[in-house]
Design a protein that fits this description.
This protein is α/β, with parallel strands linked by helices. The chain is built from eleven helices and 16 strands.
Length: about 325
């Protein structure tokens, strides 16, 4: 069945209405891998090429989606192919640099371009960026002009300071009152970042009209930064904080909120993103290709045993991705 889409733009709110199709009840999320970070490489020296913290895998699984790793360091045809098979993309947080060759930011730049093209041809395709993924979203939108500001917001749980028009957004327009109350009154958003994006930063790279700022916060020195936003035209969303940590990361001494209210709001963001993903109908060519691409083909490592900040990680060797690409004729 061919799906017909109507895109209605009203102020900051974009609404995509799908007619002639059904919600995808077997959604698959592509999660972008990342260069193995410094601390993991120290604990597992020169063993791995890239990784995904398992909390991001659980984040989408817990809302009803299955994850597929998207490799860094590939060519445009690979990203064209995989984005036309998955139903949306998650950009996880981390600690990599944007200037590393064939890394996280290079892949993000290509994914952003292709995702825009997919949406422009009438297929709903969301991107959801968390922490570094949030920063990547504005970085690639700014044509890779660095505009972040150094800040001090590590181990800092905060309530959100909503902007006046935050309800005029896809991300929050249907949020239940108890979720909004918790977010605005309690220290439930887990912040762990040394760079921030401010409203002045967006203005400096001519993105003030491209993104709708939904909430603000202040770091430990009083610097105001953007804590959530969404694109004004495409279903692209960014959270500077870490909702997945409330649910799935348990390292002590990091001020991660784990109370019932913290889990309620984190689950809200997971459910929101996966519901966006359900609006896309992409699929793999065969069931075998789909099964071979899922993250369950790879072992998960209990990295907390080696004092990692991540409870578990999926860590990949370069041969892992090469073998899969050969199997799937990509």
């Amino acid at each position: 069945m061919i799906a017909l889409w109507t895109i209605l733009l009203t102020g900051f709110v974009f609404t995509v209405v799908k007619t002639g199709g059904e919600s995808n009840d077997r959604p698959i999320v592509g999660i972008l891998t990342q260069e193995i970070d410094y601390n993991l490489n120290k604990k597992y020296p020169n063993q791995y090429h890239s990784y995904i913290a398992a909390s991001y895998v659980k984040f989408v699984e817990g809302a009803g989606a299955r994850p597929v790793p998207i490799w860094i360091g590939e060519n445009d045809s690979y990203y064209e192919d995989i984005l036309n098979k998955v139903n949306g993309v998650l950009w996880p947080g981390g600690s990599t640099y944007f200037f590393q060759r064939e890394g996280y930011a290079d892949a993000g730049t290509t994914i952003y371009r292709i995702a825009k093209e997919i949406n422009e041809r009438g297929e709903y395709f969301p991107i959801f960026g968390i922490c570094l993924g949030f920063e990547l979203l504005t970085y690639v939108a700014a044509n890779r002009v660095e505009h972040r500001t150094s800040c001090s917001s590590s181990n800092q749980p905060l309530p959100l300071e909503f902007t006046d028009d935050f309800r005029e957004s896809n991300l929050f327009k249907d949020a239940p009152p108890n979720v909004l109350r918790i977010l605005s009154e309690e220290n439930v958003t887990a912040n762990y970042h040394h760079f921030c994006v401010t409203k002045k930063d967006l203005h400096r790279v001519n993105l003030s009209d491209e993104f709708h700022v939904l909430s603000l916060n202040r770091d430990k020195k009083g610097l105001e930064f953007i804590s959530s936003l969404e694109h004004t035209q495409y279903p692209f969303y960014g959270l500077q904080f870490h909702p997945e940590k409330n649910l799935y990361e348990w390292v002590t001494g990091k001020n991660i909120p784990h109370g019932i209210d913290a889990t309620i709001v984190s689950q809200y963001f997971a459910n929101f993103f996966v519901n966006e993903v359900r609006k896309n109908s992409h699929e793999f060519r065969t069931k075998q290709e789909e099964e071979q691409s899922l993250i369950y083909n790879y072992p998960v490592t209990y990295t907390a045993l080696k004092n990692s900040t991540f409870q578990q990680c999926y860590m990949f060797k370069k041969s892992d991705r090469n073998d899969l690409l050969i199997e799937n004729n990509v």
